[in-house]
Amino acid sequence: MLVIGSDHGGYELKEYLKAYLTEKEIPFVDIGCDGQSCDYPDYARVAVKKILSGECERGILCCGTGIGISIAANKYAGIRAALVSEPVSARLATEHNNANILCLGGRVTGPVLAAACVDAWLGAEFLGGRHAARVQKIEPSAY
Ligand code: RB5
Known about the structure:
There is one protein chain. The termini are far apart. Strand 4 (81-83), helix 4 and strand 5 form a beta-alpha-beta unit. The chain has helices at 11-23, 40-52, 67-73, 87-95, 111-123, 130-138, and strands spanning 2-6, 28-30, 58-63, 81-83, 101-105. Helix 2 crosses helix 3 and helix 4 packs parallel to helix 5. A five-stranded parallel sheet has the order 2-1-3-5-4, sandwiched between helices. It has one domain (2-142): Sugar-phosphate isomerase, RpiB/LacA/LacB (Ribose 5-phosphate Isomerase B, Chain: A, 3-Layer(aba) Sandwich). It is globular and about 40 Å long. By secondary structure, it is α/β, with parallel strands linked by helices. The structure holds D-ribose (RB5). D-ribose binds at residues 7, 9, 40, 63-65, 67-68.
């Protein structure tokens, strides 16, 4: 199960991606927003909690640039949020970084390109090995 969320800056992209996921029969839970002016850290927190609790495996978060919501999500141990704007990075976010959240900017990345990023991220597999050792070093417990 995916969790998907946004602030107002990423709302239109979130709605587009919801339709895309529905068409592809990929299950998701939408945590908002509903388009109203709001604060991206609040939506990052709700999405993160769903992942850390095990209710959802991965998440997609959108804000205007993707920057704020990715910074917010990455404050939580166990979260690896990757801000991407093209599919090669999206694929590598899974293959190398085992990113459990994909972040996109609704005001800077077009919807078709964003959907291609989602496809690339979901379609890839974490490669493990040396990448697993590096990912392990990101966890606060390793600092
Ligand atoms: C909201 O205006 C905007 O600041 C937000 O969506 C995001 O781009 C922040 O990083």
